[in-house]
Design goal:
Structural class: alpha+beta
Order of helices and strands: EEEEHEEEEHEHEHHH
Shape: globular
Radius of gyration: 16 Å
Number of strands: 10
Distance between the termini: 34 Å
């Protein structure tokens, strides 16, 4: 069993068997994971809504594609910002989650964070699990848990992220990247 405190900053990659349509081929970055539950954002669900349409001051800092991503099925009316800031120290308005990846305070002035941001992505909503719920799903084989890389947050081709994350694994998971979208057509 994976230690509860060790999953923040890691990726949950949906297995092909995961039946929930909210997470079909999803790649979730876990932002928080402890005995009270887990919270993350789906990194590969772009919406057609431009960042400028809802958070105009942040639009110039958003990476390509410059759209809002659906972070998960919970609280779709709430925005969450993730930024990559290289180096040891981040500016005010940024809280490190893991490595160079951190949460951006969208109430802070963008000019405060802009010079330090290597990339920015805006999410509507999040994915959440109650106490023990994620551990149950992991036990059922619904998710692969792998290390994240800063580039995962800002992938310019989010539609390829599920395959790309699996392909870079140095295990049998790399072969799952070739799993067909519809196995019945195989």
């Amino acid at each position: 069993m994976t230690d509860v405190s060790s999953l923040a900053g890691r990726l949950l990659v949906a297995t092909p068997a995961l039946a929930d349509p909210n997470f079909d081929r999803a790649v979730v970055l876990l932002l928080d994971h402890d005995d009270e539950g887990s919270l993350g954002v789906v990194l590969n669900r772009p919406t057609p809504v431009g960042v400028g349409d809802i958070l105009e001051p942040w639009a110039p800092l958003a990476g390509e594609p410059g759209v809002v991503f659906q972070g998960g099925p919970v609280s779709l009316d709430a925005a969450l910002g993730l930024g990559v800031i290289p180096g040891d120290e981040g500016p005010l308005g940024w809280r490190r989650v893991h490595g160079a990846i951190g949460l951006v305070d969208l109430e802070a002035p963008p000019e405060l964070l802009g010079p330090a941001l290597g990339s920015l992505r805006i999410f509507a909503g999040y994915a959440g699990w109650g106490p023990g719920q994620l551990e149950d799903e992991l036990g059922e084989g619904a998710w692969y848990v792998v290390e994240s890389e800063p580039g995962d947050v800002s992938s310019p081709r989010p539609e390829n992220l599920w395959r790309a994350v699996l392909r870079r694994q140095r295990s049998e998971l790399a072969m799952i990247a070739t799993y067909p979208d519809d196995p019945s057509l195989n």
